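Design job #97: recover the sequence.
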């Protein structure tokens, strides 16, 4: 039976910045596609829209146009137009549509990838469990940013899109801070199937394979 995951600690630089700046410095960033929008789109929704485009894919060309079309479908009063249709779980509740509208009004932002130090990457199994401890150093834009490790979501895979052996480092601004780029340790303990000998880390500066020890 897996051991309980250790509690995650706030980065020291962020903790110090919050205490020094006070509550007024806390930033509320706009919604992000990977964090707030894509999780609302079910596998069923993706399959039903495959004839037109992949709902999980953030387009490289004219994303505002694409997501405006989706919003129009989400808000449509017509049962034969609204997405998702009433016969498969739709329509969305008003608060979901409001979140989508707020995200689109902010420019449909994505969640930035963190710059990582390839030499710092490790993946160490925890004996007697199915867990692996993942560590990295992220070069963040300021002490007000946080970074975390998350399983990579493979938008091109319609079934079980979260990759068991691929991990991405995201960053996000959470408090105003004048401090410059800050090397920040990032760590988490996640499940990893037995037999996996190599994992991949994805960051803003590339993809890096790491042997599991």
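Job complete. Output follows.
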């Amino acid at each position: 039976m897996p051991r309980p995951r250790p509690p995650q600690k706030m980065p020291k630089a962020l903790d110090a910045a919050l205490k020094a700046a006070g509550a007024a410095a806390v930033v509320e960033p706009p919604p992000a596609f990977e964090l707030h929008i894509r999780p609302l789109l079910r596998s069923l929704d993706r399959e039903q829209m495959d004839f037109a485009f992949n709902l999980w894919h953030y387009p490289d060309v004219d994303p505002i146009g694409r997501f405006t079309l989706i919003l129009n479908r989400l808000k449509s009063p017509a049962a034969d137009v609204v997405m998702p249709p009433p016969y498969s779980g739709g329509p969305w509740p008003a608060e979901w549509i409001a979140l989508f509208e707020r995200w689109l009004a902010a420019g449909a932002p994505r969640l930035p990838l963190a710059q990582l130090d390839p030499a710092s990457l490790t993946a160490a199994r925890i004996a007697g469990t199915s867990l692996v401890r993942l560590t990295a150093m992220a070069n963040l834009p300021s002490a007000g940013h946080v970074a975390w490790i998350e399983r990579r979501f493979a938008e091109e895979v319609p079934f079980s899109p979260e990759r068991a052996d691929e991990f991405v480092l995201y960053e996000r601004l959470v408090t105003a801070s004048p401090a410059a780029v800050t090397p920040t340790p990032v760590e988490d303990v996640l499940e990893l199937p037995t037999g996996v000998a190599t994992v991949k880390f994805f960051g803003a500066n590339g993809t890096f394979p790491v042997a599991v020890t």
